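TICKET: design request
STATUS: open
ATTACHED STRUCTURE:
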């Protein structure tokens, strides 16, 4: 669906005047190469970060006259397009080229922007993800941790390799005397962004104690805003000494 957030006219938004007036609209070759090797997610996000993206905008009526037999749009604004999946997840579609956008929606107007501006717009629109080249034979979903890294203009690394996340896990477990060790691994399925937190616990804990401990640790991680922005999903594994 498309909409104009909170009734704010498009003309006052951050996506205007982006400095791409002479852009040919062609896709960035390095970005297409990274998409073709999408299993290397660090290289993919780095290529997105360095590329110009196309954000689609469409005309959205702001005032409608339905007093007569025909409904008449009295005024319109240009609105950024957002999509909502059946599970409620919101997405901002972005495109590598004007051709890719036209394939998806010939009526949409292309707005060239930096990846940081696109990601910041997605955050402002309360989107969970960005989808690159929707409608193509190889669309790419940029997960929440990738979206936040682009918006903050910092390097993206998988959560299990992120030193900031490691420190967050240490803080979350430091006051738990039953935790003898904590490590992070890539969770399953591969490419889903799941962080698998492995807790080494002292012997003798029953199931209820283990569950309560994992819940406390998970809540501490969830309330650490910066750590949460770097983690797409969380799973626990328990190893008792």
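STATUS: resolved
RESOLUTION: sequence designed for all positions
ATTACHED SEQUENCE:
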């Amino acid at each position: 669906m498309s909409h104009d957030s909170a009734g704010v006219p498009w003309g006052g938004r951050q996506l205007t005047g982006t400095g791409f007036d002479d852009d040919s609209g062609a896709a960035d070759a390095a970005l297409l190469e990274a998409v073709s090797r999408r299993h290397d997610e660090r290289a993919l996000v780095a290529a997105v970060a360095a590329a110009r993206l196309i954000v689609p905008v469409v005309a959205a009526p702001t005032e409608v006259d339905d007093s007569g037999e025909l409904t008449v749009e009295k005024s319109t604004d240009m609105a950024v397009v957002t999509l909502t999946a059946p599970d409620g997840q919101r997405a901002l579609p972005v495109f590598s080229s004007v051709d890719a956008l036209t394939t998806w929606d010939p009526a949409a107007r292309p707005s060239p922007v930096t990846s940081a501006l696109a990601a910041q717009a997605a955050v402002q629109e309360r989107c969970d993800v960005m989808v690159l080249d929707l409608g193509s034979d190889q669309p790419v979903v940029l997960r929440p941790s990738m979206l936040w890294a682009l918006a903050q203009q910092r390097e993206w690394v998988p959560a299990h390799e992120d030193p900031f996340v490691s420190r967050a896990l240490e803080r979350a477990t430091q006051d738990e005397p039953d935790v003898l060790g904590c490590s992070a691994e890539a969770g399953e399925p591969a490419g889903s962004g799941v962080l698998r937190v492995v807790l080494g616990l002292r012997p003798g804990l029953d199931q209820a104690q283990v569950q309560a401990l994992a819940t406390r640790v998970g809540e501490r991680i969830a309330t650490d805003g910066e750590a949460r922005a770097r983690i797409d999903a969380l799973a626990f594994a328990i190893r008792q000494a």
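CLOSING REMARK: DSSP finds eight helices and ten strands in the chain. The longest helix spans residues 207-222.
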